[in-house]
Amino acid sequence: MLATVKSCFVTQVSVASLPSTRILGILVHRLTMDQFVEQIETLIQSEGQHMVATADSSMIFDAQSDSELRSILEAADLVTPDSSGVIWAGKRRGEPFPEKVSGVDLVARLCELSAQKGYKIAILGAAPGVAETAAEKLTLQFPGCNIVGTRHGFFPTESDEVVAEEIGALKPDILFVAMGIPRQEKFIARHKSLHRAKVAIGVGGSFDVYSGKAKRAPVFIQKAKMEWLWRLLQNPSKYKKTMKLPRFMFAVMRSK
Fold first, then answer.
1. 3-state class of 44 per DSSP?
2. Does residue 220 or residue 95 have the better pLDDT?
3. C-alpha–C-alpha distance, residues 51 and 39, integer Å
4. Residue 121: φ, ψ to 5°
5. Are 119 and 198 in contact (CB under 8 A)?
6. Angle at CA of residue 253, ends 252 and 256, nearest 5°
7. Three-class SS of residue 91?
8. Model confidence pLDDT, tens digit, residues 52-96
9. Which of 27, 85, 135, 181 is deepest in the core (most CB within 10 A)?
10. Is 119 helix (H, G, I), strand (E, B) or coil?
11. Is 43 within 8 Å of 49 (Cβ atoms)?
């Protein structure tokens, strides 16, 4: 059950005019963090349900062979550049991204927005206890942040509909899902009519960071665009994902 902390996407918002570029055929928006937050708030206030994808190089690479993931990204309202590999690809195409816009940073910015505007946030994902701890720390960091429910992400796909219905009962404005790529994106897209979130975002390992379970790379490593190496050293089991980076770069160099 969801722990109570506090008592095809249809959109009326046109994003066609937003600056963007295609990386291996996947459209990624070229906006600053502030601009993404502004667009997300517009989506919250509009009719229908919406999805924001935080696209790193592994997601874009996997979308080349996973037709469902590719369709989800094509239908997403916003796609952010969430890795140094994607930033590199934009620069190589002559259409540079203003900055990296990661899931972990979006969580903080939208929790801050929730504290200011009262938007309801639901948190789904990570190991048992992690989401709850992350919610507590985020509420301390952003007093007034309106986190209405949490739930761990360790459940079988057979339980997806039940979990989505639990979330839907909360009527969240924002849903953060941290279950890894592509499970989080597929959960959001397959069960949008049940979770009922106005804006749903896959945020990877963000809850591990905010709970204190995982440490984010120091700023100088982030600026050196070596955060992927830091994550690998912190969690060697991610080597398979890390090895997709050179394959992604090779594919970009071969593409027109």
1. helix
2. 95
3. 12
4. -120, 135
5. no
6. 80
7. helix
8. 999 999 999 999 999 999 999 999 999 999 999 999 999 999 999
9. 135
10. coil
11. no
Identify the CA nearest to 81 among candidates 103, 110, 65, 62.
103
At a CB cut-off of 8 Å and minimum separation 6, what does 56 contact? 82, 83, 85, 86, 181, 204
Other Cβ atoms closer than 10 A to 5:
20
What is d(CA 248, CA 143) in angstroms, rounded to the nearest whole number?
40
List the beta bridge partners of residue 202: 177
d(Cα 46, Cα 240) in Å, to the nearest integer? 39
pTM of this structure: 0.87
Q: What is the DSSP letter of 3?
A: B
- DSSP bridge pairs for 52: 78, 201
Secondary structure element (H or E) that encloses residue 200, with its range: strand 199-202
The encoded tokens of residue 1 equal 């059950």
Helical (H) or strand (E) element with 175? strand 174-178
**Coarse DSSP helix, strand, coil percentages of the chain, rounded to the nearest 5 percent:** 50, 15, 35
What's the CA gap between 179 and 170, in Å, rounded?
A: 20
Number of continuous H segments (helices) and E segments (strands) in the chain: 14, 8
